[in-house]
Fold:
Amino acid sequence: MGLQFPDGFLWGGAVAANQLEGAYNEDGKGWSTQDVSPNGIKGPITETPTEDNMKLVGIDFYHRYKEDIKLFAEMGFKVFRTSIAWSRIFPKGDELEPNEQGLQFYDDLFDECHKYGIEPLVTISHYETPLHLSKHYNGWVNRKLVEFYERYARVVFSRYKNKVKYWLTFNEINSILEEPFMSGGIYTPKKELSKQDLYQAVHHEFVASAMAVKIGHELAPGAQIGCMVLSMPTYPLTPNPDDVIAAMEFEHKNYFFADVHVRGYYPGYMKRYFRENNISIHMEPGDEEILKHTVDFISFSYYVSTCQTADPVKLEARGGNLIGGVANPYLQASEWGWQIDPQGLRYVMNMFYDRYQKPLFIVENGLGAVDQLITNGHGEKTVEDDYRIKYLNDHLVQVAEAIADGVEVMGYTSWGCIDLVSASTAELKKRYGFIYVDRHDDGSGTLERYRKKSFHWYKEVIATNGQSLQR
Structure:
């Protein structure tokens, strides 16, 4: 029997507003944390936006989205994951009234998607807290952000309730543990941030996320609202029980975020961690009730797996998607040191589904690589990205294996379906897309779009509902 994907499987691609829109100061938009992060997570941040920040222009999606949505439709996308830039809607974040021009842009964008039968999948907060909320309130450390986020969520659910069926509350919410500024808008430098303040900020995000689920279900009863976590399956480096426990404890830090979103309460293992680290979460009256507004599905990113060990000598950090670990001796790595493990995707899907019995949505997966634009034998400019095709093929085969295991999967959106600026490095040379964008790290380029070889490959995958994939 061939690979089986369910009827109605949502094939598509994923992006984030701050990595492709550009137009950072147009139509009333305020500054976000991304506008002062010209080097990605490597830092340092700047006081104001600077010309060397590639995200200020991105790929000019703000002005070219019609051209890009048409290309996505040509591939056959059923769904397009993007985010709303919070600072387009509330430029400072703490205003009482939203910016109408910002709201209108997303009306137009979602209308363009529907023109081609593409469903938007919208992340409410994707790594771009309004800079004012970061500087003046210290981001999510401050309880006031719950109020500001609630107001923002209420506005976008009210405005787009007839245009958006699928919503995510926060992108890779667990990444706040490693990148508190990018993920949580926390202005306190990471090395000075206490665990108490960090986990209090996490609590505030949990409350805001649950509140958004409650508001979304009230204002848009047909909508499905999910959480979004960075998944990183973790293997013990050896069968030594100490390594097994080290891997379990590492995974707990990630499962914690899905556990609260799906189960609606704090798990025992985290209460132990809080006790042992003198962390006391301050809860306002009603917080425990709010947390019971749980998500409809679990979405996640998957790029790498990692290993853990209790042996301090072997605990050398290994590059991964924000969260490090120990190199797996059985795996190869990408140009950026991210180890490639297609079977890890099947494994983590089974782990999530066994744990929660909730539908899953793979909303990020892809290969960042240096692509070379060439002219082929037909005189067309393209990229011969067989390495990307192999990566995606092998991961999608494992998605099919997980489906055969009985895992319920809503869809798959490949990360960076069109080239965009990297979140982690703020580079354009680290490309993920099916569509090549002629823009480079020195700011040069025409911004013209070109179909890569993988464009035609993915079009065939979607057209055959996965039957064209190669085991």
User: Anything to note?
Assistant: DSSP finds 14 helices and 14 strands in the chain. The radius of gyration is 21 Å. The domain at 10-463 is CATH 3.20.20.80 (TIM Barrel).
